[in-house]
DNA sequence: TTTACATATCGAAATATTTCGATATATTTG
DNA sequence: CAAATATATCGAAATATTTCGATATGTAAA
């Protein structure tokens, strides 16, 4: 991991709501209702559920998720009108390795 | 580690200079001149050397180091007129564990 | 005990982040 | 195709961070 990506990830992690989202996605079945489509929660949770759980505005959460995607903390999958997000464990691990 | 401390640490890590300092302190003997006192670099590097290496103002570095101390990324030791800083490996490890 | 050195704190200007409501876009469904 | 649903983007106001120079404080040396 390059320093620039590390700093961008740290910026994402320095906001309580974004951190909450990352933590909630550790257990996507326990923390969110099942996706209305056939997509299992383990392969991504739809933006609406994440939005509803935070209590912040839809536009704010969309921006948050985009920033977490750009620095690669999250992975995205678009299916029909839904967008699903899940943790990018590989990048999270690389972020930790950088520090130690 | 509590969420609040995690967020404060992330804020520290979201600045390139503070990240540099944390990385430089991985090898305090390779990255800084030997302390002028009898304190070995492995037990802490004095603020002046850290300041000189960054190129930023003394007041800025003092503020940076204080914030890194407050969130416990660093440990401090004061001896005579010098202040020495080193990494707090235990907290850094706990920060990583929180993420994974 | 004055001076020099090491570090911390203050006040301020520039820049960045947070968060919103309004609006745009894209997809599905009637 | 029109309406409904899901998500993204825009513009802006409030707040926070960055970084400085000036100054204060604490310790050591002359």
UniProtKB/TrEMBL annotation, chains A, B:
Signal peptide: none annotated. Keywords: DNA-binding, Transcription, Transcription regulation. Residues 1-100 form the HTH arsR-type domain. InterPro entries: ArsR-like_HTH, HTH_ArsR_DNA-bd_dom, HTH_MetalResp_TranReg, WH-like_DNA-bd_sf, WH_DNA-bd_sf. It comes from Neptunitalea lumnitzerae. It comes from the Bacteria. CDD domains: HTH_ARSR (cd00090). The gene is arsR. This is Transcriptional regulator. PROSITE patterns: HTH_ARSR_2. PANTHER family: TRANSCRIPTIONAL REGULATOR, ARSR FAMILY, TRANSCRIPTIONAL REPRESSOR SDPR.
């Amino acid at each position: 991991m390059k320093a620039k990506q590390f700093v961008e990830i740290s910026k994402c992690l320095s906001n309580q709501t974004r951190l909450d989202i990352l933590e909630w996605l550790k257990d996507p079945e326990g923390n969110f209702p099942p996706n209305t489509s056939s997509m299992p929660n383990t392969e991504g949770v739809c933006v609406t559920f994440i939005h509803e759980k935070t209590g912040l505005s839809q536009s704010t959460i969309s921006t948050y998720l985009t920033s977490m995607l750009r620095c690669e903390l999250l992975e995205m999958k678009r299916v029909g009108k839904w967008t699903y997000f899940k943790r990018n464990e590989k990048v999270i691990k690389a972020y930790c390795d950088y520090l130690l």
